[in-house]
Design brief:
single chain; alpha/beta; TIM Barrel; five-stranded mixed beta sheet; 6 helices; 5 strands; about 10% strand; disordered C terminus
Length: about 220
């Protein structure tokens, strides 16, 4: 989720997010702003008003693509270099997810600045050998903004590397809310429980790999 409270490309306000989540019966959302981590005060106030949990996180824009960092502290400024950021995440004991790793991978006309940092025309097996996977904790295999082909490639690579997997609604506006949710047995109480939840998500646990979490409460 992204809001105006930290993502300039979003129009969704924090109150709109709380209202939408509460009305939909969704009790936990991962707000991963592009440029800041919500403060503890903001997250506590959000929970008190809407009954919806949020977690310390951000989605950093790096040379290795967009990286979701769960557990990042308030005021953290991520390095632009993706490898350096992932090293910081490891050192701090946080958790990293490479978000929508193959967005625009098949777009031949896209500007080079928008292309993912992977060799063009590679097979899933070749992509799975990229050094970045040695530092990433999990792979996003379904993103609501991606094409089916882009998501399918991420799924193939994750099946080869054996990484934990995640999904992403990538919500920036109110009309996008609820298009992708993750049914869970219980709402994580904090970042540690959220990390444990994501870590436990293996491809072998999924009945239908794509579309497996497109419905249900959060």
């Amino acid at each position: 989720m992204h809001t105006k409270a930290g993502s300039p490309d979003a129009s969704l306000t924090a109150d709109q997010l709380g209202q939408l989540a509460s009305a939909a019966g969704i009790r936990g959302v991962l707000v991963a702003e592009h440029f800041r981590v919500w403060s503890d005060w903001e997250r506590e106030a959000f929970f008190e008003r809407w009954g919806v949990r949020t977690y310390r996180a951000m989605e950093a824009t790096t040379s290795a693509g967009h990286i979701v960092v769960i557990g990042a502290r308030e005021g953290f400024i991520p390095p632009r270099d993706g490898v350096e950021l992932l090293k910081v995440v490891r050192r701090e004991g946080w958790f990293s997810i490479l978000a929508h790793p193959f967005r625009h991978y098949f777009d031949m006309m896209i500007h080079s600045s928008q292309r993912p940092a992977f060799a063009e025309g590679a097979t899933p097996e070749q992509l799975a050998e990229a050094p970045i996977w040695e530092l990433v904790d999990a792979i996003e295999v379904e993103n609501a903004v991606n094409t089916d082909r882009e998501n399918a490639l991420a799924l193939q690579v994750a099946s080869i590397t054996g990484h934990p997997v995640s999904i992403g609604a990538d919500t920036h506006h109110d009309f996008e809310f609820g298009r992708l949710t993750l049914p869970v047995p219980a709402i994580p109480a904090d970042e540690r429980e959220l990390i444990d939840l994501v870590t436990a998500l293996k491809l072998t646990d999924l009945v239908a790999p794509l579309g497996w979490a497109s419905e249900g409460g959060g």
